[in-house]
Design goal:
single chain, alpha+beta, Membrane-bound Lytic Murein Transglycosylase D, Chain A, 2 strands
Length: about 100
């Protein structure tokens, strides 16, 4: 009986992970993801003089976001609390939709 309960519990846990796993791992859905377009990610190395705003201006056109929303989403995606804290040589993740 214990073995049956353990197996049933494991099946429930696996089902929950499969159903909600991507949301739990990534944390949140980015704008546009539910629109049948694939969300893609790429790494970007911050260059001397780069600002998050400039990076967003160059890349937001590949999403439905305006620059301000793209900056906000980049900050969330990269756990950046202060946009001015960006340092040359650091790597951030950019997103876009296909």
């Amino acid at each position: 009986m214990k073995k049956l309960i353990t197996v049933m519990f494991a099946v429930v846990i696996v089902s929950v992970v499969v159903m909600f796993g991507s949301k739990v791992v990534r944390g949140q859905e980015l704008p546009g993801e539910g629109e049948n377009r694939g969300c893609c990610y790429t790494a970007y190395t911050v260059q001397p003089g780069d600002t998050l705003w400039e990076i967003a201006e160059e890349n937001h056109h590949r999403t439905n976001d305006d620059v301000r929303a793209y900056v906000s989403n980049l900050m969330k995606l990269n756990s950046i609390s202060d946009a001015k804290s960006l340092r040359s040589g650091s790597r951030i993740t950019l997103y876009y939709f296909e």
